[in-house]
TrEMBL record:
GO terms for molecular function: cellulase activity. It catalyses: Endohydrolysis of (1->4)-beta-D-glucosidic linkages in cellulose, lichenin and cereal beta-D-glucans. It is an enzyme of class 3 (hydrolase). It comes from the Eukaryota. Its EC number is 3.2.1.4. It comes from Cicer arietinum (Chickpea). Residues 38-492 form the Glycoside hydrolase family domain. The active site is at 419, 470, 479. This is Endoglucanase. The keyword tRNA processing does not apply.
Length: 501
């Protein structure tokens, strides 16, 4: 976190740069998205998850180019691990990003479900496709959590449809002997958050999810350790837990407290918070680092109840927001010349969508409770947060220097050559003959657009100069992922309910 002693002149330069950047940028463009546009994007952002499904597809599948896949997952280990989602453009089921995706989809529904209109049931379906799988992974064996299906190194050497997979479908787990508190606590968070989604529509299922969440969290807490240490090359470098497991323990406990109302979890948070990252500031919320999300989530307790035990989380939530807002003493985020938040060259839009969701969620909490963000001696209202969030959403949808949408199937111009095996190969329905591991690269090398449109997929996005290469081999920019889309669902729901200015 930047020091609050940043000079006035430096702060002024940041602010002038930001204002000039956006004023010159928007003079060139005429984008003005309506609430109907946001609703269309919302529908497509949820539809994307159908293209990532593993398992037996239902009769109402709308991404019709996909077929059944992974129907024997887990069978050689005498467990049923059919279902769930492929994380991105490959055919592996990674537990940590899948659980985070589920938590964020559930949180999107909890905060903005009332704005989803006819898409609320589709959102619940997307969540349930994952929670059905996570339940299998969590309750099959005591003190065990199945966290991956597929040997990632072998899978990534092939370019084949999920329907044709012939790479090893090895199953990996964490246990009391080989702990994985990070992936287990995130799974607990996903189950707990999802239990709240189904409280009214399916109370029996909701109770089942909450009980599983409690059990998995207990396992995560009793046998502490990172799954990166237990599984090493199996999960690294793909989804290493770089931030460790402490942030997930606090995150998981927070969600179970929210879902259950059980004071023992509040006591856990109070007793362990300082040891698990409550005092740490982190500027980016992701499948790996849950600290900003936890601060925002727990700040609601302070805003609603003015409870001293949660005051710390409100202060750190403010620190996080201030780091994003140009002109504040703590500002330290980086934006491209075109105005989108920038952290890294690979899959940058995951940070844009997760940040946007937190901005809007915190704005909602502040609005409902008459609060404001404290940035040094200045105060920011929720409208400042909403304005920044809108600029990020609009950039993704097409209000950017390239004048293209980074959501596949939205707008007149969008990526056509995304790094995604199923999308880039002929559909199993059009080409029922098997396409082998290596022969798939023949299709990958073709210059023609992907034959199957993965509607709603948000790709990794442009570089720090707003440049984008619509190239299947440039996975850093052209690969979609479930955890890019999940928080964007909530953001789009929010703006779809706002009156068009």
């Amino acid at each position: 976190m930047a020091s609050t002693s940043t000079s006035t002149s430096t702060t002024t330069l940041y602010l002038l740069h930001f204002l000039l950047m956006f004023s010159s940028f928007h003079c060139q463009l005429t984008f003005a998205f309506t609430s109907q546009d946001y609703h269309e994007a919302l529908e497509k952002s949820i539809l994307f998850f159908e293209g990532q499904r593993s398992g037996k597809l239902p009769s109402n599948q709308k991404q019709t180019w996909r077929g059944d896949s992974g129907l024997s997952d887990g069978s050689s280990y005498h467990v049923d691990l059919v279902g769930g989602y492929y994380d991105a453009g490959d055919n592996v089921k990674f537990g940590l990003p899948m659980a985070f995706t589920t938590t964020l989809l559930a949180w999107s529904v909890l905060e903005f479900g009332s704005s989803m209109q006819d898409q609320i049931e589709n959102a619940r379906t997307a969540i349930r496709w994952s929670t059905d799988y996570l339940l299998k992974a969590a309750v099959t064996t005591p003190d065990t959590l199945y966290v991956q299906v597929g040997e990632a190194n072998m899978d990534h050497k092939c370019w084949e449809r999920p329907e044709d997979m012939d790479t090893p479908r090895n199953v990996y787990k964490v246990s009391d002997q080989n702990p994985g508190s990070d992936v287990a606590a995130e799974t607990a968070a996903a189950l707990a958050a999802s239990s709240l989604v189904f409280t009214d529509s399916d109370p029996t299922y909701s109770s089942k999810l909450l009980q599983a969440a409690i059990n998995v969290f207990d396992f995560a807490n009793r046998y502490r350790g990172s799954y990166s240490d237990s599984l090493k090359s199996i999960v690294c470098p793909f989804y290493c837990s770089y931030s460790g497991y402490k942030d997930e323990l606090l995150w998981g406990a927070s969600w179970i407290y929210k879902a259950s109302g059980n004071n023992s979890y509040m006591e856990f948070i109070e007793s362990n918070g300082h040891l698990l990252g409550a005092d740490d500031d982190s500027n980016f919320f992701s499948w790996d680092d849950k600290r900003p999300g936890t601060k925002i989530l727990l700040s609601k307790e302070f805003l609603e109840k003015n409870s001293e035990e949660f005051q710390l989380y409100k202060a750190h939530a403010d620190n996080y927001i201030c780091s994003l807002i140009p002109g504040t003493p703590a500002f330290q985020a980086q934006f491209t010349p075109g105005g989108v938040l920038y952290k890294q060259s690979a899959s940058n839009l995951q940070f844009v969508t997760s940040t946007t969701f937190l901005l809007l969620t915190y704005a909602k909490y502040l609005n409902l409770n008459g609060g404001a963000v404290s940035c040094g001696t200045s105060k920011l209202t929720e409208q400042k947060l909403i304005k920044l969030a809108k600029s990020q959403v609009d950039y993704i949808l097409g209000d950017n220097p390239k004048k293209m949408s980074y959501m596949v199937g939205f707008g007149e111009r969008y990526p056509k050559n995304i790094h995604h095996r199923g999308s880039s190969l002929p559909s199993i329905h059009e080409h029922p003959q098997k396409i082998s591991c290596n022969y798939g690269y023949h299709y990958n090398s073709l210059g023609s657009p992907n034959p199957n449109v993965l509607v709603g997929a948000i790709v990794g996005g442009p570089d720090k100069h707003d440049n984008f290469s619509d190239d299947r081999n440039n996975y850093q920019q052209s690969e979609p992922a479930t955890y890019i889309n999940a928080p964007f669902v909530g953001a789009l729901a929010f703006f779809s309910a706002q009156p068009t200015s």
